[in-house]
Amino acid sequence: MTKEDHILEVVQAFKDGAEIEWQSTNYGNWCPAESPKWDWENYDYRIKPKEPARWKPNNEDYWYLAECGTILDANHTKGSAFEDLYRCGNCFRTKEQAETARDIIKQALADYHESIVNSKGSR
Predict the structure, then answer these.
(1) 10 Å Cβ neighbour count for 70?
(2) Where in the chain are the domains?
(3) CA–CA gap between residue 62 and residue 91 (Å, rounded)
(4) pTM, full prediction
(5) Which of 102, 91, 97 is nearest to 57 (CA)?
(6) How far apart are CA 47 and CA 50, in angstroms?
(7) Residue 7: what are its φ and ψ, rounded to 5°?
């Protein structure tokens, strides 16, 4: 997709009512663009990605990953600690789901570290 195609897609989506996000071209997190400036030289714009569908406990037990892959259970669903766990995808219905997530993360980290060693730390 060309830059012009991307611009047209984002602007048309905004006109159609889609949520748009912006970030500085030099740095930044994506932020809501309620009234975009459309300054494409200094900012990047995108259609806000859809949140992935996932389970959220409602006063139910859940499992999460703690330090070094330790798996813990909890049942508190109020407060910032729970919201942080949920926001980063660290909230599972079963211990087995948490174990699978831990194993995937451990493998991803091992692969990443191997790539750093193989590229002599250029990453």
Answers:
(1) 10
(2) 3-47, 62-118
(3) 6
(4) 0.59
(5) 91
(6) 9
(7) -60, -50
